């Protein structure tokens, strides 16, 4: 059987949107001057339900909120740092606040998580979005690790009223789940079993976690790897049960460490469930850097590449 080839997360989702716009007249797409081949089909086939607001993310949110109040299921699309930070006040006021009294269905699609726009530098890279969007009540923060999960998230976003932020990588990542997406309701899936520690990772860092686990397995160190793709609504009891089965917890994220991201999420879960475990948070060193290089090189420089992560895990487990 031929292995499923990697695709862009963006394309997997846009294709699902395009397919369903023919039968669901409440689907509406709003873009901030950000293109894609499938987007051309949406614009061409459904021009009355497509708006390009230009490079104006504040207006992107305002228009999306207005359309949602009229009953549309809105997908708003822009580069990740711009759809979260350039218009954060609008996300807070016109989405998070307003939706508490006027329910709406708005999905923000941010492309370019972490270092995936590697050559564009820190202005176009995005290390803060997990923290910022998890802070807003009412937002679901969804961070898939492959295009299969990304495409499957359409059904949840279109079918359930509420606010969602999709944190998409800009690069084609290896397929983790075959043709069948994981259980979206649970919010996570265990990709690898292990006995020495649990590794909770999200997005691109799931792939790094698997590389580290493979390497350490050669020396008899056994890591369980968990893909946490729902960073706000995961099944806490189910995840806590997995973490309780192992004596240590490691988190991995392509975001600033110690700033309210996956490391804080994981430690908070341990505290809530009364689980005492030593923890190690592997994330980006909290500083902006301007070095050039490929993604692997930059990851090693900021403390999240496979080599430095492996060394830190070895030291943490004292082996």
TrEMBL record:
Task: Write down the superkingdom of origin.
Answer: Bacteria
SUPFAM superfamilies linked to this entry = Thiamin diphosphate-binding fold (THDP-binding), TK C-terminal domain-like
Task: Fetch the InterPro entries from UniProt.
Answer: PDH/Transketolase, THDP-binding, Transketo_C/PFOR_II, Transketolase-like_Pyr-bd, Transketolase_C
Gene3D superfamilies (UniProt xref): 3.40.50.920, 3.40.50.970
Residues annotated as domain Transketolase-like pyrimidine-binding: 7-175
Protein name per the record = Transketolase
User: What is the native source organism of this protein?
Assistant: Paramagnetospirillum kuznetsovii
Read off the lineage from the record: Bacteria, Pseudomonadati, Pseudomonadota, Alphaproteobacteria, Rhodospirillales
